[in-house]
Amino acid sequence: MGFRWTAPTCDRHFRTLDRGVVAVDNGGDLYPNTWSVLTRAAQAVYPVLLRHADDHGVCFPAEDRLAAMSGLTRKGVRAGVLELEMAGLLSTKKVTTRNGRRAKLYNLLNDCTSPEGICMPSIFIDGGLWSDLTPTGKALAVAFRYFAKPRPDLDPDEEGWLEGDDFTEYLNRRKYDICGAEPSVLREFSGVCRRIYLAAIESLQASYVIEPHDEMHWRVLIWPPKIRKVSWLNSRLSGESR
Question: Does residue 241 surpass a pLDDT of 70?
């Protein structure tokens, strides 16, 4: 039997995506990097591989798991993985497991545990929200997370800016970060054109990745208010193109 969705068991589990994948910082001036030119298949599968990686960046999820969680077909997963290899973000090799089964081992070539990286909450992948995003929604999601920052001073549940242990405690309990990047910047760093930007925004809101904060800022959610029902997610698997 192939992959089946189950109820998420990880509470506030995170991996971090290397910021250099999204942008190059040249003396304070930011320029788009690899993320903006990856194909949509590579952008879809990379965060799913990151979610499964251990502290050394190694994982070996089955192809049908990657397909379901990324919203791709198996063919799309293979194409995305190949491009990630060509981009220098990933290496793969075939291995034999202890029970004698053949598997593919993925080795992410960037630090996936750095506190300086882009926060990627696993619940969005485990809960089926990532798979539901449109391809451009996935591209834009990472750009939003890149530019988002913890802002207790803009959190109505806090009394202002926090420091020291109070700020650390806030990081552990916060429900969202704040992004104030302009739409043109988000489009540039995600590789999303103006014509489909608003549709991507709608997809992000439908999957609880972002929500409006005020006229100048978006909330980039750390923990979604809802996730997809396991029964509904599994009902879609039978229609997957192989």
Answer: no
